[in-house]
Every structure is written in C-alpha cells, then in structure tokens.
Amino acid sequence: MDPLDQGTDARTGSLLRQPKAVWATAGASVVAFMGIGLVDPILPSIAQGLNATASQVSLLFTSYFLITAIAMLVTGFVSSRIGGRGTLLLGLALVVVFAGLAGTSGSVAELVGFRAGWGLGNALFVSTALAVIVGAAAGGSATAILLYESALGLGMACGPLVGALLGDASWRYPFFGTAFLMAVGFLCITAFLKEQPKPARKTSLLDPVRALGHGGLASAAVSAFFYNYTFFTVLAFTPFVLNMTPYKSGAVFFAWGVLLAVFSVVVAPRLQRRFGSLKVLGGSLVLLAADVLVLGYGDHTTAVVCTILSGAFIGVNNTVYTELALGVSDAPRPVASAGYNFVRWFAAAAAPYFAPKIEEWTDIHIPFVVAAVTAVVGALVVVVRRKALTLPHSRLGSSGGTPMAEELQERHATEDGVAVFAN
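User: That's the sequence. What structure does it adopt?
Assistant: Structure tokens below.
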C-alpha cells in the first residue's frame, strides 16, 4: 500500500467541537489565504488606476511569493525562538501594516514593495498556523489538518469574491479590508491562544537547505516547483485573458476556489485510498496540463469553464503535495517543509512575471503552452522518482494511521512549533 494513503481514514472526529484558540487561528488562516487571490479580480483595475501594464501589475504576485520563498528559511528560526503564538502575532501585525499601506499606494512600485512586506507577514503566520492548530485541536492531528485544509480552501474561494465586492468601488478597498480583518484576527489570537511549547532545539537558517539533501523531499520540491508554475499562471495571468469586470472575474474565481476546497478536503482523500497518492498526483497533473492547454486556445466561454475546472485538479494536487512534504522525509517536519516550500514558492514568484512577458514576446496562447509543459514535467518527476517518494519510513504511513501515529504527529508538530506552508 502507498504509505501516504495510510491514515486517510483518520480524517474524522469532532471537527466543529474545537477550543476557541483553534477557531481564532483557523479564522485568521482563512483571511491569510484570502490575501493570495484577493487581487485576482482587480488586477485590470489596478493596472488602469496606476497606469501600469499587465506585466508590471503581475509583480504583485512575484514580490509576494519571492519574499515568501526566502522567508521559508526564516520562519523556523523565528518560531523556535519566540514561540508559535509570538510568530503568529508578528506575522499578523506585518500583514495589517503592509496591507493597509498597499491601499495607499501611489504607484505600482510602491504597491509591489508593500505587497512584499505582506508576503513576509503571511509566511510567518501561515507557516506556523498548522502546528498551532495541531497542538490545540481536539480530535487528533488528522482532524486538525482537515480543519487547516478547510480554512485554506475557504480562503482561496472567498479571496476573489471579497476582492471583487470591495474592488468594484475602488481597487484600494480590498487592501484596507484585509488589514481590518487581520487586525480582528490579531485581537482574537491575543485573547484566546495561549503560548505553545517551544521546540527542544532551535532551528538554524540552513537546516531547511540541508533537509533537501533527502532524495524524496528534493523530488517532491522539484515536482511542486513545476506544478506551482502552472498553478500561478492560472491564478495571476488568466484574469487578463478573461478581461471581465471585477464582479464577473470574482465569481469565476470564487467557483474555482469552491472546487479547489471540495476536491482538496473531500475528493482527494477518497481518490488516494482507491488509487494511491502518486497515481492520483501524476494523473491530476496531466489533466491539469490538458485543461490549461484548452484554456489557452479555447474561446472566452471555454476559457471560463477551464479556469473554474482547474480548481478541481489544483485542489487534489495541493492535498497530495502537502502530505508528501509532511511525510516523505526523515528530517523534522517543519524543517523539511521549510526546505520544500523554499524551492516551490520560487515558481509562484516566477510565473506571474514570465507569463505576461511570454505573451509580449509571442502571443496570448504560448504562456498556457508553457504552463501545460511544466505540469507534465511535474508529473514526470513523480513517475521517475516514485521509489524515492514512497520510502518505507515515511512518517505519515509508518504506523499505519494508528492512534499512536497520530499522537506522534501531534507531538512533533507541537514541539517543532512550525509546520508546512500548505498549498
């Protein structure tokens, strides 16, 4: 049996019966993930309001994820010294400040810079949130991860919708709205979350890089790198192709986010149990490649349908990649996940920049051809490196999903103080 599949039946429990600290952290996580897709429906409005080109406005994603990638080397270092609660609050405070400043921007350069600061805050918060939820949640680590994935899906779905609703009046309002909601999250975590236990050993800045010496983790990171290029071509470049009003674009990406959430939380685990994680991942990547290719060459209606449909494949991929990052390496989970995310988020920074540039150099179809190719390359890495990705000591499967395995997972997450910046 694929070791990553074992334990998926454990994703049950009293999901709704959680302490206030868990709901406070999960609620703030929803807003944090909203920030990723918040600007999607207003990218054309920002370009118009600041007299900028599509490639200039796309730098909002590039600066955000470039800083996020680099911050992966810092989050464990910070969390292991000031604790999970302190790291969450620091991250939230940075998001409040820089999201608010983003709304006051007078130029694209200012907005891109403030978005970079926002990325640092979001990295500190989101990379720590899963460990905090696991440490405080009732129902075991499987329930905690399900809750976290639900927050991710809800945030990704609601981000474009909130961006459209607020951005219809002014492109500045979504940034102010995010600052306000994160300030509420800051107050809730301050009130309800107690300090989490600090790890026994402090994490160094180079530990995540050393963790990539593990063949399985390096393979997962490389595959996820190519996948993320496809993912963020869809997220950052498609709004310019659809060229719709903020309301219509927000509705498209809301439907996209709903599919992402449903397939991530509900469908992916069932597919994993039936077919195996790596088969599901490889197949989903190939289907995503086909979907993106049709998106690039179809008419407007086809492009809308394919954009929404891509959310299903992205949801499946996100879940499997998260489990790979959590379980394939024998390094401490937060250290392994930091190294993994350090690699893959560089693609999230690259795609929003290169997709419009490729269009300028060629035509509007070629960015999607490139995105389809990168998805296929990600699938090929999974196929070629499948043995490294199914090592028998994988932590998610070593105990067969027993209560003892869950207890060990909880202890690791709580002691380490920082976990995967999932998806």
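Confidence is low (pLDDT under 50) at residues 1-13, 392-423.
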